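Q: How would the C-alpha cells look for this protein?
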Amino acid sequence: MAVRMTGTSSEQHALTSMPFFAGLDSAALDVVASGTRIRRFRRGEVVFHVGDPGDALFLISSGSVKITLPSETGEEAILATLQPGEVFGELSLLDGAPRSATAVALELTETVVLQRDRFLQLLATEPTIREAVLANMAAEVRRLTIHVEELHFLDVTGRLAKCLVRLAEEGRRDGDGGIRLRTPLNQSELAAMVGCTRQSANRVIGQFTDDGLIRVDRESIVVLDLRGLERAARR
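A: Here is the predicted structure in C-alpha cell form.
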C-alpha cells in the first residue's frame, strides 16, 4: 500500500470531479485538499476491518471496493460494490462507533482519504457536504432495502439476474456489442452478493451462459442479452 500527501491544484481538480465535492468553491476545496492524502491498495487488500476505529472518510478515485460482513467461518456477505467517485466509511465518522463492515479493494485502487476532524469541520461549515452525506446515506438505505426485498421474494436465479442487470448499468460496451462489467467479481463474490452458495451461483451462471445471456471471460463477465436478464429477474 502506498501513501502520498495531497494539496496541489491538480488534486483539487480531481476532488471537483467527485460528486461528493462538486459543489464546493475554491476556498473550501483548499481546506479539503490540505487535509487529505492518497492511499493505494492492491487487489484483495483490506482498507479497514469491521471493528476498526472510524477515523477517516475514503473517496475512490480509481479502482473499486467491496463492503462486506465476514463470518467466523471465512464466508462473507457483500453489501455493496463501489466505483470511482463513490465514498465509504462515513457512518463511523458520524457516530464515533467502530467500523460496522470490512472494506476490501477488488482491484488496484486509489483513494483520497479525509481525516475525521477535517470531515466534521466540513459538515459544520459546508451545506453542500451535509447534503452529500445525507444523499449518500439515503442511497445506502434504499440499496439495503432492495437487497432485503430480493432475499425474501426472489429465488437464486432472480437475485443473480437482478444483480447482473445492476452491474451492467455501470459497465462499458464490449467490442461485440455486449456490456462488460466494470467490477472484477469472481463467482464466489457474486454468490456473496446475492446470499447463496458458490455452487448455486455456478449453476445459475452456467444456465445464463447456455441461454446466451452472458459470457464468462477469465477476469470478467460480459452481458450479451440485457433484456433477457431482465426477464429472468422477473420470473
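The domain at 2-151 is CATH 2.60.120.10 (Jelly Rolls).

DSSP finds nine helices and 13 strands in the chain.

Upvote if useful.
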